[in-house]
Amino acid sequence: MLPSAQPQSRAEDGFPAPYRPPIEPAVGLFVLLLLVAGCTAVLLPFVSALILAAVLCFSTWPAFVELTHFVGGRKTLAAITMVVLLAAAIIVPFAILGSHLVENVGAVVAAAHRLLAEGPPQPPAWLGKIPLVGARIRDYWIDLSQDVASQAAAFEQVIGTLAKWALEFGKLLGQGLLEIGLSLIICFFLYRDGGALSQRLNQAVFRICGSEAERLVTIAALTVRGVVYAMIGTSLIQGVLFGLGFLVAGVPGAFVLGFATFILSFLPAGTLLIWIPAAIWLFRQDAAAWGVFIVIWGILVGGLLDNLLRPILMRGAGSTPIILILLGMLGGTLAFGFVGIFIGPTLLAIGYGLLQVWTDGVLETAAKPAVEKDRPGAGD
């Protein structure tokens, strides 16, 4: 068999290297930019679905690894199982909300109409006995309860705004469910081929960040899991549990109120703005037992998840300011639609975590010369 010929450059043979016109690198760079622009144009409609799929897959990767071991290393079966579990956890609650949205909004409006017709309750007798401010609060309460005309006008404006909001939210929710479904399909391939993709990602980050690559990837992973589990996960659980509680107690618009609880649960004690009025409405409807149930349910669900489960899940993931979570939800919704509720806070949390790592490194570098200078014997 003849030995394979190895290509040799002309410089190795003693000849000068062939001349390359300077325009060739420029043409190559132009073609590369065209290729990047073409790939971006093709993937642009799926950016939100791709980001959401990456967030979901990244945050649930340890569970996928354990499931793969449980099913004997069959990655395809494990990937299908994970996708089904994610669909049950994310799509089903929002699909139920969408199917009952119009009905729930109508029930909330009807209940508010009845509450307005009945008028607010009279102030309790003990309120006027509070020193200094009790009499003023009681008089203001009475005047407000008697001003029915202004209440009706304000309520009509609220109804119109609520109807428009429900229509727009229904469209946004339908589009969001389609994007979540597409994200779950992408998740299947990310799970199945995650090992090779992980190696590529680590190599890319290493080429960009050098020796800090492993540390930055670890920080990003902890941040993603902390935000997804502690913030979005617990808030989603709260929304589902409160929605079920409202449904069992007979509160109108249980699913809409459950979604409102999901949004407000990102605020400290934000769920109080939902379940306390619901409990008051039940007491006004002579359903004191169900009112007490909602109060106990709100204290248990809100208190345990906010003060016990959420801090445990956030441990080791850094502390992302609440304002960034809120801005992430609002900005993410404006940028990516309904799925931005999940994408926005995660992206801002990752950025904030990496910024902390970078600034900590800068501060440590700046502090080293001062430490060396103050060290005994330094400069001798």
Write up this protein:
The protein has one domain (47-363). The chain has 380 residues and is an all-alpha fold. The chain is 79% helix and 0% strand. The longest helix is centred in the middle third of the chain and has 45 residues, at 148-192. Helix 8 (194-209) crosses helix 9 and helix 11 runs antiparallel to helix 12.
Q: Distance between termini?
A: 72 Å
SSE succession: HHHHHHHHHHHHHH
Major sheet attributes: none
Q: What is the count of helical runs?
A: 14
The dominant shape is: elongated
Low-confidence stretches: 1-7
Strand content: under 5%
Question: What brief labels describe this structure?
Answer:
380 residues, mainly alpha, 14 helices, disordered N terminus
